[in-house]
Design goal:
Number of domains: 3
CATH superfamily of the largest domain: Vaccinia Virus protein VP39
Strand order of the largest sheet: 6-2-1-7-8-10-9
Structural class: alpha/beta
Bound molecules: S-adenosylmethionine
Shape: elongated
Number of strands: 10
Distance between the termini: 60 Å
Length: 460
């Protein structure tokens, strides 16, 4: 026997803990589920509901495995991937030309097909290994994430995948297809429940592209509103948001401008001031976005923090306001000028630094960064070598030398430099990772080295 009030309570808890909304005709199914889960856990319904109300991560994951709709396939709604390849990514590549990093996120990634498709499209567009591409897929359903990690799919999952893509990026094994290691290496998966916050996942202005398709429709208005606010804030200005066909935000979503190309709609984060980070708790329907309050003047360490948070424009403004009499202030300013694409200004700043001290390893590394993007790659290599020579513990020039060698097809040098970088990264100074890591942390850079070492000769 089960009380109606227990099922009502179960429905409320699913809304509060997992952000789900259910129609009244789902009640019979929810009733069966409540009975089954309480019994599996050896509890009466009342006791089960009390534990669920207190927060019970393991059980929430089990419910996600049982109750989510996980339908997905590679290149689902191909027109969106054509817009990605034909409009969004080329623009983001131009915006990131100095940093040469691209970050993509698939929210509600299910068994991984969407995240791998993002990786394939980015890889096809950016064959240059000098770029760092990362794709993160998040979902609340651990069973789907395990499948995503295995990266083996049936032919049915590839039903919309163009033949040439299938040949390039998949390897047939018995009756399944395995995603190529070159794509697997740039795609990661993480368990995340969108009804909860995660400061790292939603760090402001970090993603170039977010796909969140066929998830919002299962969420309560509060959860969907909070998720949209988080995604908007986490997109870099000018970054792109792709939703499912039935997930419209209306014509005037806060912080986003609607776009149309390749027979599909999507959104672009406006380049106006940053939206305030969303509150910890769910917010109502309306996405609450307000300009950030003016910040007090910061010491260089404060500027480093801003760089760490990838708030480059604010960091540069702060650095311009600060007295830059010391070499460290000049170096930080030079890094910020380079980040902003003002390479000639950055070069001037760093040359002034080197005039004062020609043995400054950081300055040589930065000069390499300034020169690498232009025609002077060989000169850049010389400065990276000098930086590595002047400070044998400096990992970052080794990393750049390794990537450049890989790009030129010199795999022997690439492997040697990347191997060295991998060892040195463990003890690399934090400030050097913030200044020269292109927005990537120690772990991500280590993974990059491992990936590059592991995929030498793999198709790109
Ligand atoms: C229909 S699939 C969408 C897959 C893919 N985005 C696509 O469009 O092909 C919806 C996914 O959202 C996930 N999901 C549902 N509720 C979630 C939550 N609270 N947090 C994170 N993921 C959730 C489900 O586990 C499921 O894998």
């Amino acid at each position: 026997m089960i009380e109606t009030s227990d099922v009502t309570r179960f429905r409320e808890l699913l809304a509060a803990r997992l952000g789900w909304t259910f129609a009244d005709n789902d009640v019979p199914h929810l009733t069966q589920e409540l009975l089954r889960r309480a019994e599996t856990n050896g509890l009466a319904q009342g006791g089960y509901l009390r534990r669920l109300a207190a927060g019970w991560g393991h059980e929430l994951a089990a419910l996600a495995e049982e109750l989510t709709i996980t339908e997905t396939y590679f290149f689902r709604h191909g027109e969106q991937f054509r817009a990605l390849a034909g409009a969004a990514l080329p623009e983001r590549m131009a915006a990131r030309a100095t940093q040469r990093v691209l970050r993509l996120l698939s929210v509600g990634c299910s068994s991984g097909e969407e995240a791998y498709t993002l990786g394939i499209v980015a890889r096809d567009l950016l064959p240059d290994p000098g770029w760092i591409i990362s794709v993160l897929g998040v979902d609340a359903n651990p069973a789907m994430l395990r499948k995503a990690g295995r990266a083996h799919y049936s032919a049915w999952s590839l039903r919309e995948t163009p033949d040439d893509v299938r040949e390039r990026w998949f390897h047939p094994h018995d009756s399944t297809y395995e995603v190529d290691a070159g794509v697997r290496a740039i795609v990661r998966f993480r368990q995340h429940n969108v009804a909860e916050d995660d400061a790292d996942l939603w760090r402001p202005e970090q993603y170039d592209v977010i796909f969140c398709r066929n998830l919002l429709m299962y969420l309560t208005p509060d959860t969907a509103g909070a998720l949209i606010a988080r995604m908007t804030a986490a997109l870099a200005p000018g970054g792109y948001l792709f939703l499912g066909h039935t997930d419209s935000l209306g014509s005037r979503p806060a912080g986003l401008e609607p776009m149309h190309s390749h027979a599909t709609f999507y959104y672009r984060r406006t380049t106006a001031p940053s939206p305030a980070p969303p509150p910890q708790t769910a917010i109502p329907d309306v996405v609450r976005i307000a300009p950030a309050p003016p910040e007090p003047t910061r010491a260089p360490e404060g500027i480093l923090t801003l760089i760490h948070q990838e708030r480059f424009a604010e960091a540069l403004a702060e650095s311009e306001r600060t007295d830059r009499s010391g070499p460290r202030d000049l170096l930080v300013h030079g890094v910020l000028l380079a980040q902003a694409g003002r390479l000639a200004d950055a070069e001037m700043e760093v040359r002034a630094l080197l005039d004062a001290n020609g043995l400054d390893a950081d300055a040589h590394h930065l000069l390499g960064v300034c020169l690498e993007g232009g025609a002077a790659v060989d000169v850049a290599i010389g400065h990276y070598r000098l930086a590595a020579y002047l400070d044998p513990a400096f990992a970052m020039p080794r990393l750049r030398l390794g990537l450049l060698a890989r790009r030129r097809g010199d795999h022997r040098t690439a492997n040697a430099e990347l191997d060295r970088a991998l060892h040195l990264l463990r003890d690399e100074r934090d400030d050097r990772i913030v200044l020269f890591g292109g927005g990537f942390g120690r772990i991500a850079l280590t993974t990059l080295c491992r990936t590059e070492l592991g995929t030498a000769g793999a198709p790109r």
